[in-house]
Amino acid sequence: MPTKQEHQAFMKTEGDINLTEARSEWWTAQIDEAARTYLQEDEDVFLHQTLSTPCLNVLSSCEGIYVEDSQGRRIMDFHGNNVHQLGFGHPAVIEAVKQQLDQLSFCTRRYTNLPAIELANKLVALTEGALQRVLFAPGATSAIGMALKLARAVTGKYKTLSMWGAFHGASLDAISVGGEGAFRRGLGPLLPGAEHVIPFNSYRCVFGCQDEAHSLCLKPIEYVLEQDGEIGAVVIETIRNTDVQIPPVAYYKKLRELCDRYGALLIVDETATAFGRTGKMFAYQHYGIEPDMMVLGKGLGGGVFPMAALLVKEELNKAQQMSIGHYTHEKSPVGAAAGLATIRVIEEENLLEHAGRMADLMAQRLKSMMETYPLIGDIRQIGLLVAVELVTDRVSKEPAVQEAERVMYSCLGRGLNFKVSKGNVLTLSPPLIITEDQLNEALDILEKSIAELA
Model confidence at 185, in pLDDT bands (50, 70, 90)? Predict the structure, then answer.
């Protein structure tokens, strides 16, 4: 087993962790005795795992863009595990779930139900018919597993190509195609044939790309597809969610062409980025391509119900002889009701347009901050998904890991929650329903916390 210091050094490449001195100091200053009791009970009963146990705090309620802790403090949540496009507890989603519970709370195997059929048809329509077949699952990790099985069945190839640093879920098959060390390290042999390459990174491009298309970043993908010859699928997060990597259009145009040339399916994982997060209903729609499969999850259930989906092209409907999913809650009428309500709210409340306006405001404020504070080395934004990368020096781009942690805890103390990725990247994902006043308040908190270090 690694030492505590070795573990912390390793984990700072993955995200904010719960074993540092800064966490202990914040916990001592911010948490009252009653909350400490509950946190100790939590620590005593749940399996310990990095990034989550011990927990930071105890939540008692959530509404809109806010979570509230057991001490009554309201905190704007720009993390939300990416389920909160509609914020928390949206009345339309809650009401849809309540009505469905009264009518049909579960769909027994061998039967279907109208909400599931309606949601499947709606998702197909949102792709404008590019993806015409659907399977539901209780979580996106399971949907990734379904995609991998289907890819093997229709191509006859068991190998995949994916990216180091990517996250596709926590099950054994999902971590095999994923590339985050926190989920893979120390587990021995994983899924055979899961090949990986260095991912696209606009700020820290290891290939030294000089062109806007970052054409050199595609060379490893092209090389593996050509040399191996047995890759059945390329699995990729359309937009890398944690540290927000946004490839140019040319990157995906070329990737689509490479998959077609070498007979590999293109599977896009939009678990964290679909349903308006990037300004489009689906992130791949920014790129003018059609994937062969798409995985959805998280926000599909409106932040209320766990719900995921796999969407595929019509020509991939060739595996009736096998059980691709066959999950107990595969066609959950309650989950489907939550999904339908979520999409209906996004459309009826024009949240894509509203989020676009809020994204413009956010971009202006962050640009001003970057001009003022050299601590900010880079800002990457698409819609309401933003990375603020902190560095000790803009020339060397040395990650400002300690500073990022201090900013995070300072913001938490002022009422703003967000994720820290790769040790030094502040990842901001506000709900699409956020108002201009709320967004300005959150950005004021962020600026004050950064200014303290300047």
Answer: confident
> In DSSP terms, which residues pair with 296 in a beta bridge?
309
What is the DSSP track for 48-109?
Answer: PBTTTBS-S--EEEEEBTEEEETTS-EEEES-GGG--TT-BS-HHHHHHHHHHHHH-----T
The one-letter code for the residue type at 430 is P
Assess contact for 310 and 135: CB atoms under 8 A.
yes
**Other residues' Cβ atoms within 10 Å of the Cβ of residue 103:** 13
Helices 333-348 and 91-103: angle between axes, nearest 10 degrees: 150
CA distances from 20 to 17, 251, 415 (A): 7, 38, 21
Q: Which two tokens stand for residue 226?
A: 């050509």
Q: What is the pTM of this model?
A: 0.96
Q: Is residue 78 left, alpha or beta, with left meaning phi > 0 and alpha meaning psi from -120 to 50?
A: alpha
> Could you read off the pLDDT of 23-81 as tens digits, one per residue?
889 889 999 999 999 999 999 999 988 878 889 999 999 999 999 999 999 999 999 99
Of 78, 141, 57, 51, nearest to 384 by C-alpha is 78
CB contact set of 368 (below 8 Å; sequence gap of 6+): none
